[in-house]
Automatic annotation (TrEMBL):
Keywords: Disulfide bond, Electron transport, Redox-active center, Transport. It comes from Prunella himalayana. Gene3D superfamilies: Glutaredoxin (3.40.30.10). GO terms for cellular component: mitochondrion. This is Thioredoxin, mitochondrial. It comes from the Eukaryota. Transmembrane segments: none annotated. Belongs to the thioredoxin family. PANTHER family: THIOREDOXIN, MITOCHONDRIAL. InterPro entries: Thioredoxin, Thioredoxin-like_sf, Thioredoxin_CS, Thioredoxin_domain. One of its GO terms (molecular function) is protein-disulfide reductase activity. One of its GO terms (biological process) is cell redox homeostasis. Residues 24-140 form the Thioredoxin domain.
Length: 141
């Protein structure tokens, strides 16, 4: 009986944790909803390649210091676009196949995609002015 209770508690922890993290990652504000984590190749195809809106794809890794600087900066600027552009986050350790397919050789690598095609790209950290110019070019503003 004690083992069953311990097992139930152990199994319940990830569920609570994942729900909490989804709540933070997918909040109700328009800006937060414009950023999403890619789950798999099919999800990438549906939400990025087939997107009617332009998509910024952030290829990153948990262990990457520059990614931790660029990611939040880019998310903030995408949120300012009020839904004109989406942002997909792709962890290269979880989605090696996508990193290979899109020729990602270093992180962070950011792709600008429109109608399923890569129209622009940069590698490394950029300042806010450069990121704004990158986004404006993508959305045609």
């Amino acid at each position: 009986m004690a083992q069953r209770l311990a097992l139930q508690r152990l199994l319940a922890l990830p569920t609570r944790g994942s729900l909490a993290s989804h709540g933070r990652a997918f909040g109700t504000s328009a800006g937060r909803m414009s950023t999403f984590n890619v789950q798999d190749g099919s999800d990438f195809q549906d939400r990025v390649v087939n997107s009617p809106k332009p998509v910024v794809v952030d290829f990153h890794a948990q262990w990457c210091g520059p990614c931790k600087i660029l990611g939040p900066r880019l998310e903030k600027l995408v949120a300012k676009q009020e839904g004109k552009v989406l942002m997909a986050k792709v962890d290269i350790d979880d989605h090696t196949d996508l990193a290979i397919e899109y020729e990602v050789s270093a992180v962070p690598t950011v792709l600008a995609m429109k109608n399923g095609d890569v129209v622009d790209k940069f590698v490394g950290v950029k300042d806010e002015d450069q990121l704004e110019a990158f986004l404006k070019k993508l959305i045609g503003a």
